[in-house]
């Protein structure tokens, strides 16, 4: 049911905010407490009554003190099927008692309907150009995860402008949206798969990796191959949570999770001059 999926999304946001130490955690926590309070009103339903101990606990400050991602995940699984029992809150319609007044029509000439740079069109043109110059030293560095210099990016930017890939405004908009030219280009050309594998070569070397751990790392490598970089927050989204609902903590030790995040940040940093 849609209500259950919305609850899943709410609890996922709560888990991510807990991990990140986000100030938004308090606001989402309040929403969850309100929901379980509404569930308490449905105690006559046997399925709800069976989870009443948890429902009552989640409305106390004591339950939330020291709450963990695992506790939130267990609560999500136990309560998601009960959320549809909550009565839908319907907003009352608002009625107004006044008449519209239509003034004299005035002709207006509209200009500049482009709405600013067309970034998707620019990305397509830039991707084609970069494929044509794939042997350029800067492109090879970006693809193979080698550090860049400011000169590398300056030269590549000059080539793109001379080739008419886009306007200076489009290039600046793309750089702003991607936190720099290097990251913008890496997002278009991706990361060489062998380079991505090398970045994680030592990660599981000193341990007996399980099949799920290997698959989790392979999902990261797949993402890097396609997109060039990866925000560590993606580790707590699908397809990673399809394999481990609680994210990397469900498969790796805290030290290994820190190392995963560190590797992803190192890969990103190498695309920044």
TrEMBL record:
Keywords carried by this UniProt record: Endonuclease, Hydrolase, Nuclease
EcoEI R protein C-terminal domain: residues covered: 120-267
One example GO MF annotation: DNA binding
Biological process terms in GO annotation: DNA modification
Any single GO CC term annotated in Swiss-Prot or TrEMBL for this entry: cytosol
PANTHER family per record: ATP-DEPENDENT HELICASE IRC3-RELATED, TYPE I RESTRICTION ENZYME ECOKI R PROTEIN
Domain of life: Bacteria
Keyword RNA-binding set for record: no
Pfam family for this entry, one: EcoEI_R_C
Keyword Protein transport recorded: no
UniProt name for this protein: Restriction endonuclease subunit R
């Amino acid at each position: 049911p849609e209500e259950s999926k919305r609850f899943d999304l709410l609890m996922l946001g709560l888990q991510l905010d807990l991990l990140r130490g986000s100030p938004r955690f308090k606001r989402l926590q309040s929403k969850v407490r309100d929901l379980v309070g509404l569930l308490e009103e449905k105690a006559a339903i046997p399925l709800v009554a069976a989870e009443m101990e948890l429902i009552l606990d989640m409305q106390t400050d004591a339950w939330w003190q020291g709450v963990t991602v695992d506790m939130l995940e267990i609560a999500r699984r136990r309560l998601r099927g009960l959320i549809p029992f909550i009565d839908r809150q319907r907003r009352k319609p608002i009625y107004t008692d006044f008449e519209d007044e239509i003034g004299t029509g005035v002709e207006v000439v509209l200009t500049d309907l482009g709405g600013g740079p067309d970034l998707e069109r620019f990305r397509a043109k830039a991707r084609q150009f970069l494929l044509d110059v794939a042997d350029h030293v800067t492109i090879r560095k970006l693809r193979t995860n080698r550090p860049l210099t400011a000169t590398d990016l300056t030269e590549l930017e000059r080539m793109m402008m001379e080739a008419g890939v886009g306007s200076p405004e489009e290039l600046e908009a793309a750089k702003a949206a991607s936190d720099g030219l290097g990251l913008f280009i890496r997002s278009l050309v991706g990361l060489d798969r062998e380079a991505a594998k090398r970045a994680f070569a030592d990660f599981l070397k000193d341990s007996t990796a399980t099949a799920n751990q290997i698959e989790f790392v392979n999902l990261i490598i797949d993402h890097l191959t396609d997109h060039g970089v990866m925000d560590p927050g993606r580790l707590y989204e699908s397809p990673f949570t399809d394999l481990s609902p609680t994210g990397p903590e469900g498969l790796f030790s805290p030290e290994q999770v820190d190392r995963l995040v560190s590797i992803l940040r190192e890969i990103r940093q190498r695309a920044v001059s």
